[in-house]
Amino acid sequence: EIEKAWKMVDSAYDKEQKAKDTILALKEEIVNLTKLVEQGSGLSMDQDSNIRDLLKFKEEVTKERDQLLSEVVKLRESLAQTTELQQETERSREEAEQTISQFQQEIQQRQNE
């Protein structure tokens, strides 16, 4: 279960990195297009449409990134809870082993008497 959680965290992290890379590329494209407009070159209808498409895509990618970040937070919380439960279980197991060992020693002492 922990491995599954880690795989999900890794997957979410990879998606987040891809989204960040896409956002950076889009920001660079916006800067370049803004420079073209400032230079007075004017935009054709296709370029104007591309800008709108890029801005829309940027919004979608940002929304997806936010969702992935939220998922990563939930997965980390789940992993922390699972780790804590595993540690508690390990402590209980160790206590049980100690109790068994004590009982075995008592049995051995009584048999020796």
Explained architecture:
The chain is built from two helices and no strands. The protein is an all-alpha fold and 113 residues long. Helix 1 runs antiparallel to helix 2. The chain is rod-shaped, with a radius of gyration of 29 Å.
Inertia-based shape: rod-shaped
Compressed to H and E, one letter per element, the order equals HH
Report how far apart the termini are: 49 Å
Which regions contain 5 or more consecutive residues with pLDDT less than 50?
Answer: none
Averaged pLDDT: 87
Q: Tell me the β content.
A: under 5%
Number of helices: 2
Structural class: mainly alpha
Number of strands: 0
Determine Rg (CA atoms, Å). 29 Å
Q: Helical proportion?
A: over 70%
**How many domain regions?**
1
Q: Mind summarizing the main beta sheet?
A: none
Produce a short descriptive summary.
The chain has 113 residues and is an all-alpha fold. Helix content is 93%, strand content 0%. Residues 81-113 are annotated as: Disordered.
